[in-house]
UniProtKB/TrEMBL annotation:
<dbReference type="InterPro" id="IPR011047">
    <property type="entry name" value="Quinoprotein_ADH-like_sf"/>
</dbReference>
<feature type="domain" description="Pyrrolo-quinoline quinone repeat">
    <location>
        <begin position="2"/>
        <end position="123"/>
    </location>
</feature>
<protein>
    <recommendedName>
        <fullName>Pyrrolo-quinoline quinone repeat domain-containing protein</fullName>
    </recommendedName>
</protein>
<dbReference type="InterPro" id="IPR015943">
    <property type="entry name" value="WD40/YVTN_repeat-like_dom_sf"/>
</dbReference>
<dbReference type="InterPro" id="IPR018391">
    <property type="entry name" value="PQQ_b-propeller_rpt"/>
</dbReference>
<dbReference type="InterPro" id="IPR002372">
    <property type="entry name" value="PQQ_rpt_dom"/>
</dbReference>
<dbReference type="Pfam" id="PF13360">
    <property type="entry name" value="PQQ_2"/>
</dbReference>
Length: 205
């Protein structure tokens, strides 16, 4: 699995570890201000034994959002370390924050929209889990969502790019690429850039 990138807020840096632990450390001396564990023992299945945090923590205002592979998404007060809310959601992808909502692709192949203030789920959009769903062959891995204008974009390891409404979760369109996508798309100046496994960069407006 991958590794999370630390997030900084003022004099604190928030670091996620492969053990499933989250630490807030003081920039000037490295002392721990608070810590939390995102390991989730109540979840059954293969993901339960993987407590790893691959997704980078994201800070907005005084709140840090973090999700573990084992099935815990949390919002924490970055100053006190107090949990504001939590959801039983597992992901290896960094959440995308926009306005009052948080968007995340899960290990269960769902795209979920969550209200940032209280953690309530607004909508869930299922996406394909296998290239051959009948025989459950060719598992598909989806990237983190990227918001471009009024569309959420996710890309799959099988080469499919989907545009989804951030307001309702409704499917807006599908684009098929010649190669798969493993790296999350990025956006700059209204253009979406996608790097395929065939080393091709696709730019979409």
């Amino acid at each position: 699995l991958g590794s999370a990138v630390p997030a900084v807020s003022g004099d604190l840096v928030v670091v996620a570890y492969s053990s499933g632990e989250l630490f807030a450390m003081r920039v000037e001396n490295g002392r721990i201000a608070w810590s939390d564990s995102l390991s989730y023992q109540g979840r059954l299945g293969a993901n339960a034994v993987l407590s790893d945090i691959d997704a980078s923590p994201v800070i907005a205002g005084n709140v840090v959002y973090s999700v573990s592979y084992s099935g815990r998404l949390v919002a924490i007060d970055v100053r006190s370390g107090t949990r504001i809310w939590e959801q039983e959601i597992a992901s290896a992808n960094t959440p995308w924050l926009a306005g009052n909502y948080l968007y995340v692709t899960t290990v269960d192949n769902n795209l979920v929209c969550i209200r940032r203030t209280d953690g309530r789920i607004r909508w869930v959009r299922s996406v394909p889990a296998y290239i051959d769903p009948e025989d459950q062959e060719g598992p598909i891995v989806w990237t983190r969502p990227t918001l471009v204008g009024d569309r959420l974009i996710i890309a799959g390891s099988h080469g499919e790019v989907r545009a989804i409404s951030p307001y309702t979760g409704r499917m807006l369109g599908i684009l098929n690429l010649s190669d798969g996508v493993r790296v999350s798309p990025i956006t700059a100046n209204g253009t979406l850039y996608i790097l395929t496994t065939g080393a091709e960069v696709v730019a979409l407006r």
